[in-house]
Amino acid sequence: MADMGYEEPKASKLPAAALILRVTTLVTLAVSMSFLRYVFFGIAAGLFYILLHLPFDLYFFFRKKRLINNHAFLIYDFYGDKVCMILLATAVGSLFGATVEINSGAKHIEWFGEEYSDAKDYHSKMREYCMLAHISAVFLLIGCFCSLISSVISSRALLKLHSKHKSKDQFDKELIVSKTTVRGTQAVTLKVKVKVSSYFSSTFGSNQRRPVPSGQPVNNLVAAKVELNICDHRYSKGDIIPLYGNKVGPYSNPRETYGYYDYAYCSPDTVKEENLNLGEMLNGDRLVSTPYKFEFLVDKVYAVLCNKTLSKTDVSKFRNAIEKNYYMQLHFDDLPLWAFIGMQKDIYSHEGVERVPILDTHFEFVVFYNMDRVIEVLLVSDDSSFVHMTEDKEVNVGFTYSVSWKKTQQPFDQRIYVHCVNYIYVDPSFLPNHTPVHHQSITFSSVALLILFIVLLTFYVLVLRKDISKYSHDVEDNQMAEYQEETGWKNIHGDVFRFPKHKSLFAAALGSGTHLLVLIISILVLGILGFFPPYARGAFWNALVIVYAVTSVVSGYASVSFYSQLEGTNWMMNLLLTGGIFFVPLFLTFGFLNSVAVSYGTTAALPLIGIVMLSVLWIFVSSPLLLLGGIIGKNKASDFQAPCRTAKCPKEVPRLRWYRGVVPQMALAGILPFGVIYIQLYYIFATVWGHCIYTLYSILCVVFILLLIMTALVSVALTYFQLAAEDHEWWWRSFFRGGSTGLFIYGYCIYYYFWRSDMTGFMQTSFFFGYMACVSYGIFLALGSVAFGASLLFEAYKSHLLQCLAIVKVGLEAEAWVETPGSNSSMDKAHHRL
Record's superkingdom (predicted)? Predict the structure, then answer.
């Protein structure tokens, strides 16, 4: 198409077109459903897919780039549009075919009109029905057509992504060939290549940063090539690689970060703010352009960045930042760089030692490269170039920098690990090349779990064998004297499956806990599959928000279906309770902490566009899916299948000793599962509330599986002991016991804050304890659901076994009565047991 002079459409039109097509498809499907509920499955599937995709198109429209732009998502987009189009096309064909058959049948009804008096009325209703069906089919056809165009756009996006993977050698070969052509042909080739490359980068660009234009004129072909190479991290000598400033903050308070230009650093004439996705905004990133000029393989020595005069206010801010050990974060070729703003230097004099704050004015960048790719970057401050920040007066400062390039043999796919391990401000003990502690923690947890499993299994076998031998012993010795009342858990088997109090709240907690459990498992699976590379800023937070919204259907289904099994009637109120039992505390916490961040003026405050994106995701994705799950759960729910019949009058719970109370049992139930994850918690906290990188999702997944098994075993054991004490109110108790691990995790937060970290200040403290309270509460709900589910399955199995033993004993007693006629008391007992 290049030889024919074909030009791509403008990049700004594509997001608007994609958004208009999605909204049009959504509206036509909704209108089609309002006219006719025929072929509901195809329409419902289309609605679900469009609602799921709408937030991404809104982000694409407003930010002019895709929220998620990796290969897997584009493949999902490609096949999702195709499947949606096929479903809608099938629905359209079925709808038109149905109307044809109905019209054909209506003609026969009209022919019999003379014999049947109500045939004409029926015929008029059928014609009205066919008219509505035709209107619905037309709207559905429009939606199918829009889906077809969306499918073409998604196919185009995938093809463009594949074309980006063209190797650098092939690109250079095309460049050499174009230079050998005549001048006129070369001009056409240059024009087409620049347009295509610009279109690729602006429309289908990923989170990789585009280069900032320098002040010098650059050839269009070179600019296009640099832009393409930025996406592939490949460069030629002289290509400009941008350096972005991100944030500034105290090293001990990772969430208390401020904008890069809140401090008087050198800035270009026009500061450009990079477009950020939702995850980057949640992470507090605010990338801005800087006047640094890096040319690939070009060394620089004391290049002047700028000369400026710092005001008294600037000097005071720098001095306060140096005294509080502030650092700044930069980004070079998607690699994070950290450097302290300055340091407190000891000045020796005859009066003693004085600590003087000094501002670093010169930075040395050491860039390691392998062929045409950047592998590692080191940022080192020069102690010989500084300015004293002791007095509140104006200071003239000259900022300079040096760049040196060194060759390395490290491969590109391992560069983030090499970069982080070798970086002077990152402790390598946190990183994946030091794994003996992780293996030891898994070994310890596995041994403890195995011991507990063997002990519990031995105990259960002995108890059940004792019950079985008791039944068989009575029959073998023909001891049928007097009926003795059962004791322990067998005595209250008629109350074991009595529904709990506040069953709507219980079902809501169970549904929300199941939702959060699915969320955690999904995040761990995505981490194992490599969806969270360390250099992809915000990828984890993006996945967390999107997966939470998409899996809302789980909470609606689990809560309403279980509530219906408990013979609940107000399922809509239960659904609202399910949606708010975790979201409302999280929303209130977020609102308060975001207000604190705004008052401090930090980048931790989510901007308005981020709040709008979260609101759209909650309104148009999470809430409809929650309602859809509730409707499915209401329609699919069956009766509660209790193994035995529940007694009409509940038995009185005997007075229990103190160690059988709720609080002691929660303390006992939480300490063992907490011991499984204790060692891993330190690494997780150092990642979330520190400057470390966690990539061992496989180990974390194994630990989480051990945590679930330990929680289930402990809950089953304590539930058995509770029922053995003839306390049948175990439903809520088992949930609390399983969730008590979340309380231990919050207790560890207190220990970590005061004894393992250096966090200070109201903002950092409120962020730490506020969000960790939400996390601990979520873990409480998730593990509580696991504990109750395990206890319910065990009690159902045990009651079923008891029922089988009772039936066997009744049969043996009846057989004994037949052998000894005249003994009516034994038969009466048999009837009583049956």
Answer: Eukaryota
